[in-house]
Amino acid sequence: MSEKKIPYKIYLEESEMPKQWYNVRADMKNKPEPLLNPGTLKPMSFEELQGVFCDELVRQELNDTDAYIDIPEEIRNFYKMYRPAPLVRAYCLEKKLGTPAKIYYKFEGNNTSGSHKLNSAIAQAYYAKEQGLKGVTTETGAGQWGTALSMACSYFDLDCRVYMVKVSYEQKPFRREVMRTYGAKVTPSPSDTTNVGRKILEEFPGTGGSLGCAISEAVEAATGMEGYRYVLGSVLSQVLLHQSIIGEETKAAFKKYDIKPDIIIGCAGGGSNLGGLISPFVGEKLRGEADYRIIAVEPASCPSLTRGKYVYDFCDTGKVCPLAKMYTLGSGFMPAPNHAGGLRYHGMSSVVSRLYHDGLLEAVAVEQTSVFEAAEQFARVEGILPAPESSHAIKVAIDEALKCKETGEEKTIVFGLTGTGYFDMVAYEKFHNGEMSDYVPSDEDLAKGFAGIPSFPGNEVF
Amino acid sequence: MSEKKIPYKIYLEESEMPKQWYNVRADMKNKPEPLLNPGTLKPMSFEELQGVFCDELVRQELNDTDAYIDIPEEIRNFYKMYRPAPLVRAYCLEKKLGTPAKIYYKFEGNNTSGSHKLNSAIAQAYYAKEQGLKGVTTETGAGQWGTALSMACSYFDLDCRVYMVKVSYEQKPFRREVMRTYGAKVTPSPSDTTNVGRKILEEFPGTGGSLGCAISEAVEAATGMEGYRYVLGSVLSQVLLHQSIIGEETKAAFKKYDIKPDIIIGCAGGGSNLGGLISPFVGEKLRGEADYRIIAVEPASCPSLTRGKYVYDFCDTGKVCPLAKMYTLGSGFMPAPNHAGGLRYHGMSSVVSRLYHDGLLEAVAVEQTSVFEAAEQFARVEGILPAPESSHAIKVAIDEALKCKETGEEKTIVFGLTGTGYFDMVAYEKFHNGEMSDYVPSDEDLAKGFAGIPSFPGNEVF
């Protein structure tokens, strides 16, 4: 098919939308390591996990053998409200850069939650409803996940309780109001509604909270109420499974026009978007059917893949969750407060970590100012205002396209545009005012984080 | 075609996108009255208008004979970045309401500017560029129009100077930063950069500004600089022409599935969205080809159609612009400060005014709290967070659907969902906190506004 026929936006028909999620673990020879009970250091059993998570989600979490899992019809119907997400040809960006490269992006910001998080939120809410639960609890920092979960729970008429890091609750009142619009109960964390919250408030009366504390409160709240479970927006294998809809749609859209991408780029925080985007393509690599260059982009201020250790670590700073084998900076690691947006997690999904460890993808770390420069350059020609997280991928896509300009190669590049930046204008303002810093942790800073990683036979960091 | 086959979202193919704007004035037997020079009370000539507006836009403003006007290819290419906008079947809302009515909405919020304003902004920027101009000036209040124009100017590498009402500049820093991201120079109005601004600052040192003042500054700035013109985001006939892309796409999408709407609903401020949505359908009515019930929805706090006078009036509070024949509350009328969002304009597009006067459309006024109730109801099931302006149309669409529930009629209702409410969370917060008021101007309040309408033979208000 001649290039001229490729539209600006490739939309799948509803009938072409994927009906199954793809579970990349099934095709991995080296499976991601199992979650461990921090007390016994034994793999977490179904029974241990079902007290915290919905039964079906536990099954998905533990399932590393079925390559395809049917998407229930009710979830597919919800997906139809905002999916298929367009695969956009960045004609204007290509022209602006003067590159022979062909650049595409999969845009996941076309829904009110403003990001890809909704893909998993609706699935998790559905299974909670199916199980006859009354509601779910979660934590949120920047607010993308909390917003997505609020929407999903509203759709299924499920109670939704969000513990929002107090400093974000106060500084991001708009995020809070969106969640309230969808009927969620939003509590600034630490709060006096949980034991762990009261304890922290007693110890640190003026604290602005942390994600670790909010997770602890959300887990305590869920396990302490009849008919509630805790849900999480990234890191877990079940989340990557749900997010595979991104990659499956991308693959189908490319197939429609007989296009094969050369380079696939995604931003990486906990791994939900990256894992979802790349899964089907990694599957082809694992099965020897095709080869792609895959690049994970992380912030230089929180460089879990490029500078972390591949060991078992706590998933939360409160250390209430199981241990996961992953690239980690240590659960006590905190990125500098001036770091904008998400991608602040100390670890990385076990699936992405394993794939990276086995050489199936590359990783690069980029600094904040260059990310916002790329974001603004992109916005001015493509018209979409990208989230800071997504802009990490934009930065590297532009870099790769400029390399093609030097070499004259007509590579096809695709990146994940995970969401919009409407609620991140404070960061854009800092960028415009030249007040953005490019802090990169020193080796000494990292050593402090590594020191908090649990040490046991086979899991020595130093 | 059976109903089951209608997808959640009807997308046109790029090849099906309209290539012409539709100029409803050509089909109107009673044409809208011409703009008058306030000094001579004679119709404004091409020469008089071209000092303020781009030549081609003046031609479009004066053209009430050509029914179709080609959309230049460059504008069509830009449109392809965010259009066709989906026509969405509100299956979830229908289910929630339990109505036999079929509800559709044309969603114009799928671009960073967040509203339909971009449809005209890109056209106006294009013609400015074609004329070899250096830049354009404009005013903005809430910020939707300023944002759209900034994006459009960035695309054509045109200087963009936005005079933003000072109180909005300070209270809506995020809107300001979006415009800066697109390279616009945003000045709080009144400012010391213009004579009129300096004069007002001297007289009222602490003023928060007004739209009327910002218009005056923008016009002075444009006419005082070589290579600049002034542009406007609503009210003018040229703007309705560009916005006809909304109605043309809606018509084409319905046609694809052989659907004929019974009721067409749009929110009405200056008339840009309403006029654009209904134009092609009104054209059919005018030509006797079809009949539709058309409803304009305005806020009860600023009821130009339902309680205004159909006379010549100033288009701006600063009284620097020509006189227009329209439904007006008087250029001195100011809606209560607690009124949320846009739709605050004292008058109404001449085209919409004429059509309303001739009985081609109905108008209803709705109160603020009921609008936000409808907005929240819609958001919770349809997933999109609507702008307060758009929610006026949602309110009446729901009302009409509930009437169908009573009568059992399976009417097809379509409304314009003009944009998203991401930057309106302060209003949502007031609504959640029960702090929203439903002020409706008394007859005395209106009389004060009417007193400012110019009186001359044939234009007596009292």
TrEMBL record, chains A, B:
Gene3D superfamilies: 3.40.50.1100. GO terms for cellular component: cytoplasm. It catalyses: (1S,2R)-1-C-(indol-3-yl)glycerol 3-phosphate + L-serine = D-glyceraldehyde 3-phosphate + L-tryptophan + H2O. Belongs to the TrpB family. Residues 82-419 form the Tryptophan synthase beta chain-like PALP domain. Its EC number is 4.2.1.20. Signal peptide: none annotated. GO terms for molecular function: L-serine hydro-lyase (adding indole, L-tryptophan-forming) activity; pyridoxal phosphate binding; tryptophan synthase activity. Tetramer of two alpha and two beta chains. Its cofactor is pyridoxal 5'-phosphate. Pathway: Amino-acid biosynthesis; L-tryptophan biosynthesis; L-tryptophan from chorismate: step 5/5. InterPro entries: Trp_synth_b-like, Trp_synth_beta/beta-like, TrpB-like_PALP, TrpB-like_PALP_sf. Keywords: Amino-acid biosynthesis, Aromatic amino acid biosynthesis, Lyase, Pyridoxal phosphate, Tryptophan biosynthesis. It is an enzyme of class 4 (lyase). Pfam families: PALP (PF00291). This is tryptophan synthase. It comes from Kineothrix alysoides. The beta subunit is responsible for the synthesis of L-tryptophan from indole and L-serine.
